Amino acid sequence: MLSTNKNRLIEMLSAALAGLAQERGLGEAPTPRLERPKAVDHGDVACNIALQLSKAWKLNPRELAQALVERLQQQAGFSQLIASCEIAGPGFINFRLSNAAKTAVVEEILSAGPHFGETAPSDGSPTSAMIEFVSANPTGPLHVGHGRQAALGDALANLLATQGIQVHREFYYNDAGVQIANLALSVQARLAGLKPGDAKWPEQAYNGEYIGEIAAAFKASPEFKDDIEAIRQFAVAYLRNEQDIDLKTFGVKFDCYYLESSLYTDGSVAQIVSDLQSIGKTYESEGALWLKSTDDGDDKDRVMRKSDGSFTYFVPDVAYHTSKWKRGFQKVINVQGSDHHGTIARVRSGLQGVAQKRGWDIPKMYPEYVLHKMVTVMRHGEEVKISKRAGSYVTVRDLVEWSGGVTSEMTAEEREFALQRGRDAVRFFLISRKADTEFVFDIDLALQQNDENPVFYVQYAHARISSILQQWGGQASELAKADLSLLQSKASDHLLRRLAEYPEVLTAAAEELAPHALAFYLRDLAGDFHTFYNADRVLVDDQHLKQARLALLLATRQVLQNGLKVLGVSAPFKM
């Protein structure tokens, strides 16, 4: 139901309830809620306010519903908004919108264009937010888990932007610690002529071919010298550049890259530890420094500083999130793998301690988390577990190239087209399931050019509409004056309903941090379009009917474009 229509009906229901309460000396009533009936035949929208109030007002719910309907029918503008309403079951009120109210969505879409569905933040809601995602260690190429984070994080950022929120995208580089040390040792071993499998190959070394590529590049560079710190710096910079190339191929950009190492060099980690010690949030035991995280609901206290003097990895995380709050980000969302679940309580506990020390009002559930589960890659009916280049996992680059059908024989133009197709498939697929469910990525399905491939199905709807409009040959501006009252078929009614849902789908998906809901919606919208196309011929001889149906298609194409853009997927005009 178009939001303006919904708000008008809620206002009318509220006025009817207030009038009835005053007349009969009854108590206040809550704001009525509207929902879509499960069965289409039951109407366009339903309300159960009579059932909600019947006990408190000591009235039979059907009688209360009847009294409300009678008052509604007396209100000015009700007949223009509602074609009919009926009382069903124990006291539901089912409404059928007038044809003019239903078709108004086409005019609104054509007027708003690419901004249809966008809204302003509600009163009291944050107007800015940070989303941290990907945040891969610079120890190797991005893997498919990072790809899922990239798709989810970027779509979430776009979703929040549709709600009038200014979004800051941030990538946190874990460029300190044991894993970086192992990277440097791996490259150093390659420089010494060792390879995986050799007797002297370090046990904790990385085995992928990319280690050899880094070693060769370092040896050929002006910075080359047999110094472990120089090797570390070169290897980290090399892989950061590699990851940037992969992210660019995937269509993801960040506003800021934040280095973990900076939290040590600028004293932030030391200050956090000092803050927590000063308020009695820590204690010494077994030669280690512990955080009293059980005070904040953790299942056990956590070690902050080990007996060897080094910090555990969640301590710089607390310092990093302190930086986020200090920079003014009161709404922060972290998109991470489900293996980070155990760190949530200790990070939040540390932040509560910092807040206590510094007099900050950090919410207990700060930051918010979207945790995703594993991605299994299938190809030719078998699971693909490794990439030759990465050595132990499938990379994002592999996934994009395989899903686009990239081959070495392609021209530059053909390769770019294939990469676009692969990127679209990977992004849509990885968004199309709830983040907390495991996902099987089928390369063979991504390559199919038929209705079984969900991204092809949605994109083809957009391309098909574009083809019809091109065949018509007129100007889109002509359709602004179309007689939309002629849209009276069952298929057009379903399509109009679906279009009207789009703004609420965006709002709900943003509030619930659930971009998969938008992917579901786009598939449903494409399905309603295909049904309409097969049921109602568009380019008919009747000029007025033709323009009405073309206007409906133009609006549908616009919503498909808008939704695909939020997901970071292209909307091709031909396929």
Describe this protein's structure.
The chain has 575 residues and is of the alpha/beta class. 51% of the residues lie in helices and 12% in strands. It contains 20 helices and 15 strands. The strands form 4 sheets. It has a 5-stranded parallel beta sheet with strand order 7-6-5-11-12. A 4-stranded antiparallel beta sheet has the order 1-2-4-3. A 3-stranded antiparallel beta sheet has the order 8-9-10. The chain is flat and about 85 Å long. The two termini are 32 Å apart. The mean pLDDT is 93.
Could you give the count of β-strands?
15
* DSSP strand content: 5-15%
Which stretches of 5+ consecutive residues score pLDDT under 50? none
Overall pLDDT:
93
Overall shape: it is flat
Q: Major sheet: order of its strands?
A: 7-6-5-11-12
Provide the helix percentage.
40-55%
Q: Gap between N and C termini, in Å?
A: 32 Å
- Largest sheet report: 5 strands, parallel
Structural class: alpha/beta
Please count the helical segments. 20
User: Compute the gyration radius: what is it?
Assistant: 29 Å
Describe how the helices and strands are arranged.
Blueprint: H1 3-24, E1 34-35, E2 45-47, H2 49-57, H3 61-73, H4 78-81, E3 82-88, E4 92-97, H5 99-112, E5 128-133, H6 144-162, E6 166-173, H7 178-191, H8 209-219, H9 228-249, E7 256-259, H10 260-265, H11 268-278, E8 282-285, E9 288-291, E10 302-305, H12 314-326, E11 332-337, H13 344-358, E12 368-372, E13 375-379, E14 382-384, H14 396-404, H15 412-431, E15 439-442, H16 443-447, H17 454-472, H18 490-511, H19 516-535, H20 543-567
Parallel strand pairs: 5-6, 5-11, 6-7, 11-12, 13-15
Antiparallel strand pairs: 1-2, 2-4, 3-4, 8-9, 9-10, 13-14
Helix pairs in contact: 1-3, 2-3, 5-18, 5-20, 6-15, 6-18, 7-8, 7-9, 11-12, 11-13, 12-13, 14-15, 17-19, 17-20, 18-19, 18-20, 19-20
